[in-house]
Amino acid sequence: MILRHGILRGLRPCQLHPYRRTTLQPQFRSNNTSHNNSAPPSQHAQSVAENVRGLMREIPHPLTVIVAQDTTTTTGTPPAGLLVSSFNTVTLHPTPYVSFNLKLPSSTYDAIKASRTFTASAVADVQLARDFLMDKRAEGYMETMRSNVCDQRSGMLKPGRGALWWMRCRWAEQRSQPVGDHVIVVGEVVGAGYYTHSLDEKAGASDKPLIYSQGKYRNAGPPVAED
Fold this sequence. Notes:
Blueprint: H1 41-56, E1 61-62, E2 64-68, E3 80-84, E4 88-91, E5 97-103, H2 107-115, E6 117-123, H3 126-131, H4 141-149, E7 163-171, E8 177-179, E9 182-194, H5 198-201, E10 210-213, E11 216-219
Antiparallel strand pairs: 1-10, 2-3, 2-6, 4-5, 5-9, 6-7, 7-9, 8-9, 10-11
């Protein structure tokens, strides 16, 4: 989803809030100082944010793994990576650009800035999504990332990890934009293709991208009849 404002970064079970259906009347700021809102602006903003969170949970969002490697160090720093639900295309012509959102601070964003590149991979398997939701403070997390999940140089996922396709991107610094406690990361796509090995070798993997909606992992259903 837009869990955590568009990101599934570091998601823990306690962050899967109960599903809510509420309605909040709009409030607009006025230059007239005699006008008093029924609630303080900060309280109203918080209520709106919670309402938006609940509304966006109804919309399916594709899951994508973002991996970046800080190439400026010589100490063998493992790749940094996370799972996002905000990955999308910005434009295809004249040059393809993609974007996604990150909550700051972010070790993955630090790695993107250092290397000026990142690799996006479409998730087609629940276990892969769980791997990138693992608590980064857990013992052995970095070692798992380095040896079992992705290639340290390219950021591409290793065979059998349950990914559908990959995009190699160059960070577009001038087009990326901080917004609140997040940053909209924009990248120029310099290469793309399918993981031809993953779906054959990963038992239980789907041939469709994994999506997240209403607090559950899902696959897209059959097309809806348009007649």
